Amino acid sequence: MPKVTQQHMDARREQILDAARRCFLRDGFHSTSMQDLFAEAGLSAGAVYRHFTSKDEVILAIAEENMRDVLDITLAVATNRQGQSMGAVMAELLDVIRAKSVEEGVAGLAVLVWGEAMRNRSLARKLDHLMGRIRANLVTSVRDHQERGGLPANATAEAIASTMLSILPGYILQVALLDPVVVAEVPDAVRALWPGPAGEC
């Protein structure tokens, strides 16, 4: 029997998650069964269960992937502190969310995940952990900008980071529910709100 490569396993996992996204966006979490996922993915039950033992595991994997790009951007900014204003950082986050929503329905899935987290404590804990990592990365960036005069020093870095992070859910909700034109200028508005000191883009 030929050995299954990691590349094949990764591709199969993404095939399952792509099918799950379509099902969840179309029918919601609770109206989607594992049998629906098998049919949408065009795979046997065994092929799906090799990667995910339950629908909750699929939901959790999608929630993690939704937040990965945001986490990666905030981590990159926290570890490479040169260049961008906090407004530019936040605008980049919003641009990623908008692009991923067009490609994968990220905003709609995020709203579904938030609702599910109200009843699923495991999912709520995972989201809390991921949000904590994103907040910590933003705190590092905020402190750096405060030291360089790009943000006020009369509020804690933690409070400013939490305030900036609170923009994301409102933006995601609007992307999920409203005409794209309504939020098209939001990234530019965020850049204008936090432009940084003179000479900083």
- Note poorly predicted spans: none
Strand content: under 5%
Structural class: mainly alpha
Terminal CA distance: 57 Å
Number of H- or I-type helical stretches: 11
CATH architecture of the largest domain: Orthogonal Bundle
Mean pLDDT: 88
What fraction, in percent, of the residue positions are helical? over 70%
Biggest beta sheet attributes: none
Gyration radius, to the nearest Å? 19 Å
Topology order in helix (H) and strand (E) letters: HHHHHHHHHHH
Keywords for this structure?
mainly alpha, elongated, Tetracycline Repressor, domain 2, 2 domains, 201 residues, Arc Repressor Mutant, subunit A
3D architecture notes:
This protein has helices at residues 6-27, 34-41, 45-49, 55-79, 86-104, 106-117, 121-147, 157-165, 167-177, 180-183, 186-193. It contains eleven helices and no strands. With 201 residues, the chain is mainly α. The chain folds into two domains: 1-53, Homeodomain-like (Arc Repressor Mutant, subunit A), CATH 1.10.10.60; 56-193, Orthogonal Bundle (Tetracycline Repressor, domain 2).
Note the topology.
Blueprint: H1 6-27, H2 34-41, H3 45-49, H4 55-79, H5 86-104, H6 106-117, H7 121-147, H8 157-165, H9 167-177, H10 180-183, H11 186-193
Helix pairs in contact: 1-2, 4-5, 4-6, 4-7, 5-9, 5-11, 6-7, 6-9, 7-8
Provide a compact summary of the structure:
The chain is mainly alpha-helical and 201 residues long.
